[in-house]
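Field log, afternoon session.

UNIT: design team B
ACTIVITY: writing a sequence onto a fixed backbone
BACKBONE:
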């Protein structure tokens, strides 16, 4: 089947529309190749050939190297810091495999969106929390192995005081910029396909101490639509929001306000409110997936870390040992338990 998200933002919104499209999630890695083996061999997600590079001299982020993976539902952008700086500080603080930020495409309407926010009193920031310079331009582009081609990418972040602690990035993709790294990403794979049964990202879960306040930000500032939610397993409250994903299936933000003693409560205590705690991945046949993973030396576990007996599908989903997933938090759920369309 074709990869719908390679059609880009223009396939989903009209010119002049400032609706942000959830394009990718940034995953920090201490070892790109080790993390890539988990994503490709275990999860079955294809690695994109384009390599992204942020200059080692870029002060607001520090040097970085990046690679995209086609996780149906979202692109995963695997980021490895290459120099000391803000990126390395994040890796040191959150650890290998952390889901660091959620990234939204504004296409040609980036400046229009920032102007509208400024009119509402919102000052967008650089990654390091400093005021934007040149609209948020950083020295980033496609890396050909020797140099960064067509450097210059405009990105901006909401203050985390507004988002409830979640790092939310807006970025620009100008349709007249032929060398744009994200246009290049989509152009290179415009004819790429994926297997129909490939596990897909159904939701991105965020742990919060106030689901209603977090939901209010995403609804009032980003235009997300709320779906009827309620209490969930291990949660006092769950709010589902249509995240307006870039792929053909619905993609949800799942805001989880946990009950004491739950797995999510432990994450909240350790990482703080607004932390992106896991990717919810739908697998059509979890026992078969587990059998294939076992051949690679990977054991699925329950939410307490205990190995799962062969053929079982726990109500709370299946997880990976941290050493197997390189710290990337993935919860496997059967298709019957996916979020509502």
């Amino acid at each position: 089947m074709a990869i719908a998200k390679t059609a880009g933002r223009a396939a989903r919104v009209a010119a002049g529309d400032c609706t942000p499209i959830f394009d990718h999630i940034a995953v920090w890695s201490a070892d790109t190749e080790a993390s890539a083996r988990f994503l490709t061999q275990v999860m079955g997600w294809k690695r994109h050939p384009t390599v992204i590079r942020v200059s080692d001299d870029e002060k607001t982020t520090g040097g970085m190297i990046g690679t995209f993976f086609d996780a149906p539902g979202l692109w995963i952008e695997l980021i490895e810091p290459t120099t000391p700086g803000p990126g390395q500080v994040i890796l040191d603080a959150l650890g290998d495999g952390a889901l660091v930020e959620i990234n939204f495409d504004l296409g040609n309407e980036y400046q229009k969106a920032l102007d509208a926010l400024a009119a509402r009193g919102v000052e967008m920031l650089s990654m390091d929390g400093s005021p934007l310079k040149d609209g948020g331009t950083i020295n980033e582009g496609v890396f050909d192995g020797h140099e960064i081609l067509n450097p210059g990418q405009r990105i901006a972040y909401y203050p985390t005081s507004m988002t409830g602690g979640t790092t939310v990035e807006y970025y620009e993709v100008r349709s007249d910029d032929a060398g744009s790294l994200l246009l290049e990403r989509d152009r290179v794979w415009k004819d790429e396909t994926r297997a129909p049964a490939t596990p897909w990202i159904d939701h991105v879960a965020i742990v919060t101490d106030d689901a209603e306040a977090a939901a209010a930000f995403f609804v009032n500032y980003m235009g997300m639509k709320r779906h009827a939610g309620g209490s969930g397993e291990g949660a006092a409250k769950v709010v589902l929001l249509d995240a307006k994903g870039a792929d053909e299936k619905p993609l949800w933000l799942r805001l989880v306000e946990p009950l004491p003693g739950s797995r999510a409560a432990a994450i909240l205590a350790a990482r703080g409110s607004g932390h992106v705690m896991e990717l919810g991945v739908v697998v059509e046949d979890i026992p078969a997936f587990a059998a294939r993973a076992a051949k690679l030396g990977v054991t699925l576990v329950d939410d307490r870390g205990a190995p799962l007996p062969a053929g079982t599908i726990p109500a709370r989903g299946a997880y990976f040992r941290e050493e197997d997933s390189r710290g990337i938090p993935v919860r496997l759920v059967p298709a019957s338990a996916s979020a509502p369309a």
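LOG NOTE: The chain has a mean pLDDT of 91.
NEXT ACTIVITY: expression trials, pending approval
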